[in-house]
Amino acid sequence: MAGALKISLALSGGAARGAFHLGVIAAFERNNVEIAAVSGTSIGAVIAAGVGSGVSAFDMIRIFQSKAFRKVFQFNYFRKGLLRINEKAAILKEIAPIPRLEQMPIPTFVTCVDLPSGEIVRFSDGETIKLAIASAALIPIFRPIVYESYTLIDGGFMDNLPVEPLLKLPYTVVSVNLFPVHVKSKGKNFSSIERAIYLSILASSKRQIEQSDLCISDPALNDFGLFTFGQLQACFELGYAKGSESILTFMAQQSIIKSF
């Protein structure tokens, strides 16, 4: 992409708020911003798999809004988790058509936590869909995912904004945080479990924000529930507006700096 701003993109967890990620990415697609590497946790990992596979943001939001996508989540009869994700659902291959991370045309990183060891595990090779699902395995809602020698759960428990894999790459680091900092949780859709998740990830995100050249978020994200899918379009539009504003301002600032 000639003349494009090349970035490394870090995508946080945040469940249904992932539509904001897609809006931001759509803004990048419309403003000559090239994603040269991508890293994700939880829903950010699912979207990162799509970005790495070359699927557009507009195609992904269409998939997320479909009935087929909602059928991916199945009742698990309380066996190690209330819900499970059907890894073999055909719709997941539309989000991530490239079966292995190392086959992606750009570096793609998925962050998980190994439950027995309590360690962060970052994957840049391996089974795309299985690892993306593992990164989104928010216990106790979803069951852990066994992969090779690991028992994997949601990476957001220890690193919800996975900037670290991108720091050694030669690109501008842009992160998108679905949990706005310094915002009190008084939104009408904010449940006790959502508040607990918010508190558990807040401290770990502050350092990653500081490591980013640009962090995109919006206080209005607090008005969107984590587990409600009725507001995906509105969340997408918020991401598009904020993403456009943020990246255009950033590029203008960089042009001024280079002129001196």
Could you explain the architecture of this structure?
The protein has 260 residues and is α/β, with parallel strands linked by helices. The protein is 37% helix and 19% strand. The chain contains eight helices and ten strands. The protein has helices spanning 18-30, 43-52, 57-64, 67-70, 90-95, 128-135, 192-211, 232-259, and strands at residues 5-11, 33-41, 73-75, 83-85, 108-114, 119-123, 145-147, 150-154, 172-176, 214-216. The strands form two sheets. Strands 1, 2, 5, 6, 7, 8, 9 and 10 form an eight-stranded mixed beta sheet that branches. A hairpin with a 4-residue loop joins strand 5 and strand 6. Helix 1 (18-30) packs antiparallel against helix 3 and helix 2 (43-52) runs antiparallel to helix 6 (128-135). The longest helix has 28 residues, at 232-259. It is globular and about 55 Å long. The two termini are 26 Å apart. Residues 74-78 have low confidence and may be disordered.
Topology (elements, then pairings):
Elements: E1 5-11, H1 18-30, E2 33-41, H2 43-52, H3 57-64, H4 67-70, E3 73-75, E4 83-85, H5 90-95, E5 108-114, E6 119-123, H6 128-135, E7 145-147, E8 150-154, E9 172-176, H7 192-211, E10 214-216, H8 232-259
Parallel strand pairs: 1-2, 1-9, 2-5, 9-10
Antiparallel strand pairs: 3-4, 5-6, 5-8, 7-8
Largest sheet: 8 strands, mixed
On the 0-100 scale, what is the average pLDDT? 87
Number of helices: 8
Question: Which structural category fits the helices and strands?
Answer: alpha/beta
For the CA atoms, what is the radius of gyration?
17 Å
Q: Could you spell the SSE succession in H and E letters?
A: EHEHHHEEHEEHEEEHEH
Strand content: 15-25%
Percentage of residues assigned to helices? 25-40%
List segments where confidence is low: pLDDT < 50 over at least 5 consecutive residues: 74-78
Rough outline: globular
Distance between the termini: 26 Å
β-strand number: 10
